[in-house]
Amino acid sequence: MPELKQLRAGHAPAVLAFELANRAYFAASVSDRGDDFFDRFADRFSALLAEQEAGICVFHVLVAEDGSVLGRFNLYDLEDGTAVLGYRVAQHVAGRGIATATVLELCHVASARYGLRTLRAATAHENAASRKVLVKAGFVPDGPADPAELGGKPGTWYQRDLARRP
User: Fold this and answer.
1) What is the per-residue pLDDT for 37?
2) Taking a C-beta distance cutoff of 8 angstroms, is the pair 72, 60 a contact?
3) Alpha-carbon distance 133 to 75, whole Å?
4) What is the pLDDT of residues 85-94, one digit of tens each?
5) Pairing between strand 118-124 and 155-161?
6) With 90 as the cut, is the pLDDT of residue 31 above it?
7) How far apart are CA 139 and CA 133, in angstroms?
8) Which residues contact 30 (CB under 8 A, 6 or more apart)?
9) Taking phi first (over 0 means left), then psi (-120 to 50 degrees means alpha), and beta for anything else, what does residue 100 get?
10) What is the pLDDT of residue 165?
11) Angle at the Cα of 29 (from 66 to 119), degrees rounded to 5?
């Protein structure tokens, strides 16, 4: 059974393997991270852990029983009880409800562990799978997203009040 875990230094090799294995898949729906991301992965990973330590963000990985990463589920810009949600799941588990179930779990964790009251997430109009996950997890449309935040693609912000159950 996959387990949602807060990101730690020991996850670096599995996160890199996840990103490399799914690079083309992710690039089809979100902007590609670029070669620099992979060339400087160790530095970027350390920076993520520093942001987490500072309380700015909280990063999570969905880990399979074999230790491989099936998904990343992150809370960014924690401020005044609100955070931005970002997520991605491996191609080989997409379409099985894993993203929806994990977003729902993270909503509970965000409220219970981090004291958050509201989560926001942006997705491109063309990313039907992500929109479906958000709606199933109780998020509602909350206005247009700046294309600059979505790799130049038009999109929508979604929001969920964590006191409300989907």
Assistant:
1) 85
2) yes
3) 16
4) 999 999 999 9
5) antiparallel
6) no
7) 9
8) 88, 124, 127, 150, 151
9) alpha
10) 60
11) 75
Non-local (6+) Cβ contacts of 127 within 8 A are: 29, 30, 155
DSSP string, the chain: --EEEE--GGGHHHHHHHHHHTHHHHHTTS----HHHHHTHHHHHHHHHHHHHHTS-EEEEEE-TTS-EEEEEEEEEEETTEEEEEEEE-GGGTTTTHHHHHHHHHHHHHHHTT---EEEEEEETT-HHHHHHHHHTT-EEEEEEPGGGGTT--EEEEEEETTS--
What mean pLDDT do residues 62-85 have? 96
* Structure tokens that stand for 148 in this block: 């600059």
* pLDDT over threshold 70, residue 95: yes
Summarize pLDDT for 140-166 with one digit per residue, the tens: 999 999 988 887 889 999 999 998 665
Q: What is the 3-state secondary structure (H, E, C) of 27-61?
A: HCCCCCCCHHHHHCHHHHHHHHHHHHHHCCCEEEE
* pTM exceeding 0.70: yes
Assess contact for 93 and 105: CB atoms under 8 A.
no
